[in-house]
Amino acid sequence: MVPPAFAQRTTVSVTVGAMTPARIVVVGTGYVGLTTGACLAELGHRVTCVDVDTAKVARLNAGRVDIMEPGLSELVARGLTSGTLSFVVGAREAVRAADGVFLCVPTPMGAGGAADLRAVEAVVAEIADVLPSGCALITKSTVPVGTAQRIRDLLGRSDLPVVSNPEFLREGSAVADFLGPDRIVVGSDTPGAADWVANLYATLDVPAVVTDAASAELVKYAANCFLAMKLSYVNAIAELCDRLGADIEDVTRGMGYDRRIGRSFLRPGPGWGGSCLPKDTSALLRIAESVRFDFGLLDATIEENLAQRDRIIAKIAAAVGGRLADARIGVLGLAFKAGTNDLRDSPALSVASVLCAHGAEVTAYDPAITGDLPGMLVADTPYRVAKGADAVVVLTEWPEFQRLDWAYMAELMHGDSVVDTRNLLEPRAILAVGLSWQGIGRPRAAARTTSVS
Ligand code: UGA
């Protein structure tokens, strides 16, 4: 039962039904901004997306979307055709008639690990004097706790509510996540402003958690860091499985049925990466430091992620006889996860680069990546990576790697080692073609593989 005191402190309202179309401006047409703009237009709002990149704005007005995101091109096309979505250069002009302005500009990791807010501050300074009275300024970008207050100070106007409305979109399923979210989080210190923003999503019929600005800002970090912690934990348990002879697939299955734990985010891998989890874990650590809180748990989460990469390197080294120098290694997957062509903070790319740095000859293949990368050859077919390889290493969980002709892969390889850092392949299928298989935290499956061969 929820203690009454908790229930009182937490404002949770469910917004269902009537939604008034609003005039929305989205500043920044990156991955978050473009998804936000296209989806808000789909929900019935009139949306103008702004960017500083003239060529990109022209491409978008012609319906050309640069990023790989299922369903996004279709939504952009639909919005352009119906006239609910447009793209322009110049935020000052665009915001003059807006009811709400979403800030979706990058907040990269700055010096020392804190979020770099310069892009947010620059936009606020640019539009402060032309925003119509009552227009809500809404942060979607992940921003440090206290940013809403900072924006209010920068604006220097009391007639403009500032609202935090963090996004919880995953790359590769951003449109589906936007239109079918678990919840909406909106926070503001201006009475009524958060409810107005929550109402923009009213047709989605999902819970809206309405809070003060600082709490909404912290929700985003708390959620992403919790996911990172879950993954570091599961990678550590997988290491224990390797050492104790247990099987991580069975262990996580046994854990996941517990609804308090849940089944998602329990897949071990070469470490967590991407454009969000690494920067947000560092940023929250800096935020904690700023209030003199020693967040050892988060520190350990980050350290464990580095340790996981080192363990993967050691596993690959062992698979080629202990010496990486001059070993020929075929790498399957470079993107930070399947379904995206994003290489930012990719554990796969990081592992491949470390292998190169140790003198290995690396040939990589990723269905979403073309063009060579520093130190390694990027092939245009997965079979090319197997040619003459001492070991083939799976680093990104693209389903197409399961469907490869592994008998042909075995023929092409010089050695017989397959290191599967995503536990993606069926060990028996690899065994059946005379190769050895090693996963993460599955020593018995690996032993089965070896004993039969
Ligand atoms: C993450 C969050 O999941 C989103 O909710 C959030 O909105 C987003 O960051 C953001 O802040 O914008 P994303 O970066 O797209 O989304 O990636 P995830 O799907 O969360 O994956 C992160 C990393 O964890 C990847 O390297 C992935 O391979 C790894 N992972 C994920 C695992 O190793 N095992 C799992 O079971 C799940």
Describe this structure in words.
42% of the residues lie in helices and 14% in strands. The chain has 453 residues and is of the alpha/beta class. The chain folds into two domains: 12-214, NAD(P)-binding Rossmann-like Domain (Rossmann fold), CATH 3.40.50; 303-452, Rossmann fold. A nine-stranded mixed β-sheet has the order 1-9-8-7-6-5-2-3-4, with helices on both faces. Strands 12-11-10-13-14-15 form a six-stranded parallel β-sheet. The model is unreliable at 1-16 (pLDDT under 50). The structure holds uridine-5'-diphosphate-glucuronic acid. Uridine-5'-diphosphate-glucuronic acid binds at residues 142, 167-171, 224, 227, 231, 265-267, 269, 272-277, 336-337, 347.
Summarize the structure.
The protein has 18 helices and 15 strands. It has 453 residues and is of the alpha/beta class.
Q: Low-confidence parts lasting 5 or more residues at pLDDT below 50?
A: 1-16
Question: How many structural domains?
Answer: 2
Major sheet: size, sense and barrel closure?
9 strands, mixed
- Please state the average pLDDT score: 93
**How many helices?**
18
CATH class of the largest domain: Alpha Beta
Structural class: alpha/beta
Bound molecules: uridine-5'-diphosphate-glucuronic acid
CATH architecture of the largest domain: 3-Layer(aba) Sandwich
The name of the CATH superfamily of the largest domain reads NAD(P)-binding Rossmann-like Domain
**Oligomeric organization of the protein chains:** single chain
